[in-house]
Amino acid sequence: MTRPVASEAATGLRHRAEAEASALPPLLVQARHLAGSVLMGEHGRRRAGTGDDFWQYRPAQAGDSRRMIDHRRSARGDIQFVREREWQISQTVHLWVDTGASMRFASSPELPQKAERARLLALAASVLMVQGGERVGLTGGSLPPRRGNVQILRLAEALSDDEEQDYAPPNDRALIPHARALFISDFLGPSEPMEQALSKAAARGVRGVLLQVLDPAEEAFPFSGRTLFESINGGVTHETLKASALQERYLDRLAERRTVLERLCREAGWRFGQHHTGDPAQTALMWLYHALERTAP
Amino acid sequence: MTMIAGIGFSAPWLLLGLLALPVLWLLLRAVPPAPKRQPFPAVTLLLGLKDDESLSDRTPWWLLLLRMLAVAAAIIGLAGPVLNPSTEETGGRGPLLIVMDASWGGAAGWKQTSAQAAAQLEEAGRAERPVALLRLSAPEMLQFRAASDWQRQLAGLAPLPWQPGPDQLQQALAAIDGAEGGFDTIWFSDGLEYQGREGLIEALGRRGDIEVYEQPLPVLGLLPASYSGGAIELTVQRSRAGPAQEVSVVAQGKDPGGTARSLTALPLRFADGARTASAELSLPAELRARLSRFEIRDMKSAGAVALTDDSLRRREVALVSSESADEGLALLSPLHYLRQALAPSAELLEGALEDLLPANPDVIVLADVARLAPAQEEAVIEWVENGGLLLRFAGPRLAASDTARSGEEPLMPVRLRIGGRSIGGAMSWGEPKTLAPFAEGSPFYGLEVPGEVSISSQVVAQPDPQLADRVIAELADGTPLVTRKSLGQGQVVLFHVTSNAEWSSLPLSGLFVSMLERLAVSSSAAAPQAEDLEGTTWSPVEVLDGFGRLTAAETLPGVKGPDLVAAPAGPELRPGVYNGGRRMLARNVLRPGDELQAARWPASVAVSGYGAPQELPLGGALLTLALMLLAADVLGTLAISGLLGGARTAALAAALGLAAWAAPQGLQAQGTPAPEDFRAAELASELVLAHVLTGEREVDRIAAAGLRGLTETLYFRTSVEPAAPAAVDLERDELAFYPLLYWPVTRDQPLPSSQAYGKLNAYLRAGGMILFDTRDGDLAASGATSPAARRLQQIALPLDIPPLEVLPEDHVLTRAFYLLQAFPGRHSRGPVWVEAAPPDAEQAEGIPFRNLNDGVTPVVIGGNDWAAAWAVDGNGRPLLPVGRGYAGERQRELAFRFGVNLVMHVLTGNYKSDQVHVPALLDRLGQ
Question: A193, B193, B679, B846: least buried by Cβ within 10 Å?
Fold first, then answer.
């Protein structure tokens, strides 16, 4: 049926967008749910200032406005008290989540794709950090760090994009000096861009966390027989007559890659972590949270 | 045929192909399986890794074995293996004649007979003997043909529901005489003796050897059921006396819902050495009336079926009383006790006599009816003379009238004295009278007379010479209570008391029911004799086939009455149900008194039973096995290539299994859906506005453009996103897909056909809406009627249109999407008519509109030429000017808003109207 009114393409795009958008709230909900399981609120300045947490009561002094008097405390005695809160400052966190095609892989239908898990973790961490008053954004300047709940929505939207290329290089532009960073990827692509990104970040005083997300199949290599391995886009292929014979050498290479990454992190003052899509996301989020805490300057 | 290990092969040389299997093994082994493709992001880590030279994967051994087995099975299957090949070849070399009795007697074992005959044909085919086949129940000229010809026809042969009679044997002898040369005979006998068999044996014996196959079990036959003494008598015969045996006879009939089912079963027992077994079956009249046939359980044979006819059937009784129906006096109604007594065992008809007579009831009851109109009386007399039973009851009216006073009347058995008499009342002497025992010869003879039955009033018969013959029940003092006379083939019976309890307590007693039953039974004809049916012709309604199934008689010729009873069944007289005008007669295979005789064969003839293991060709099974193995091979190959998931494997395996099973059954043609279906699916999946084609091109063009404009407006402003509008031809197109039809009315529009009106009415009833637009709003506003409006009146006349009113201010259309009070199109002043609100619509308190909750108006009628205001061209620009300047554009906007409201109203119904309840709901929630 011809449609004179609006082009088929526009309708299709909107339908797809709606379908995509309908997937977003679950992601958000999941992320918030995940984040809710981790307690928030540290890195206070240990002194009175602007913040949410109670710091101390002090007697009211001349110059304090009457609004500041805490009547609940003051009613217990004759002296009027002022309630002070802890001074908390916010940090800036840059996120980079690999959106390359290699992340869209799950070895069995029961497992989530690596990209899904990476997004979930990134978003959950963002929720935590935004709740903690931090500013969160993406690297590359496409979504500058901001605070507030709306930023979560923007992040969710931005993270939903997919890239066509197999192995996306990390985006290291527009890093704010002395900020923190979180890079989530499978780090299976070429390692040079990674090295460059880390050295650049280290030069700017940015410290952070690398989280490698892998599928259990990538960790175990449970293949045998004549097999043609190909990357998700089919750009890279490798054929073998007996896959089981490759397992040992593959695992060696994987370990080697991990060692390289760990060395890079050590040199740059970053922390390196691993996560498998077969494991619950919660543990990864806990680790991520504490790792981010510890990299705080 | 070559024998290897007990299995014969028709093409043994093919087995040499098995020698090629090892070569195949080597070949298949050298070819490795195809690689499986594995998406793997970490492939970058694999780049550059070399395979070990010595490690190349081979096809696994089990897959090779599977393939070998498949090929071996195919080779062996094609070599034509046969299990139990018949090794002893019969000596005969010449032509072969297969004779079959093919009567009902062999129907029960027809399957075995057929199989045995097939085996004989097979053997004859291998020996290349020409074969002829002769069915004695329907003989034809002998044709010696190849056995394979007959094999194909064998399945179509069925036993016939009669025994070979003299005529058939004559034809069979002629056929045998007509054949040339000698031939051997194989005779499949049904085991029943019939006249003239010796001549046949002799004629066949002259030509060659005779071999007889006969079922070892005796043949059972069910004689027609007879009704006597309140019970149904059933008799089963067997052809040979044997040890004690028990058979079960099932009574089939209709249940109260009208479906055929087994009503009851009766076990019959043959004593040791007895040839007949009989038993009596007592059934309530109600059940008896519904019987249609008896059959011996698990015997599929025409002889094991006894059809029943009118003699056991439920009778129709017409009740007529002189009183008008008065609900208050049910127990005093003359018909009450009759109804109670007859309802369980008869079909009751009630009404006026002239309505009941054409239904031709079996019995007419006149309760206290003194006189009939002369025309009715004649009709009733004719009906009685044709065999009806007229049952009259006396009563005050009859006693007061002068019926049968001066002379005997045809519809009254006796003459009556004036006034009747009263006994035992307050004003009379004596006690109420009781009944005398029934005399022998009376139909009531044998009924117990209860002492409590007393008669206090009656009409009294005039003494007449015939009176004594006509009395069938009398009081203790000898006065007649029930009199009867016959009239033609029927009879007239008079009860000298009322049919209610006013004059006697007879209707209150069980005797009354028994008397009625006796009378009703005696009115049904007993089994007719041949001489009774002299000169009548009976046409078959349903006939039995050899297996005892009833089939429609279709064009079979009628049968003479005497033959129907007396003649043996044959091609001209098929057993079945026959119609003779007023009644139905059942003709069964066996007549009452028939006897079954076992066939006796002369000593010269060899008689053998059935037996011997049958040949079983194995080729088909082996080829199927090969096919299944290949299917398994497909699965295996896919599995080692990693192309199968668990669930998919199961599905594919199931599909392959099904395919292997279905392959020999033949492929079924896949019907491709017609193009209309595609169109329908398309229309049903989208919302499409439509306009009715008027035949005037310009009007249709504007309508299409108008709907395009409205569609676009809806698309951009609302969540309704219609597809491109459609044009509808009322005569051709299905309307059900369109929620809204825009119908511009023109002066010369042809009236729709009656089918189109049917469709339109169905459309309106199913919730569709038609917007009629006479496009004359400029004229109509000033009170003039335009030609288009007149045409609309003609068009709308046959439509189901409810009362209309001018669109009220509070109609849902004014607020379905936009708030509107005017509904302009290109014209702005014309009124708009919609379905009138129910008169009891109330204005809710505090709400500016009435409580109008139900229904979408099926029509909207106006003349504002909306399509013209909506019309846009392909680029979305308005086609026609509306109004003047900015005010015109405002009017166009309002026209669009009306369109949007209209579509919203169609799609959401009175959803907006429901909001009148919101305050009430809020109020309740507040509490």
Answer: B846
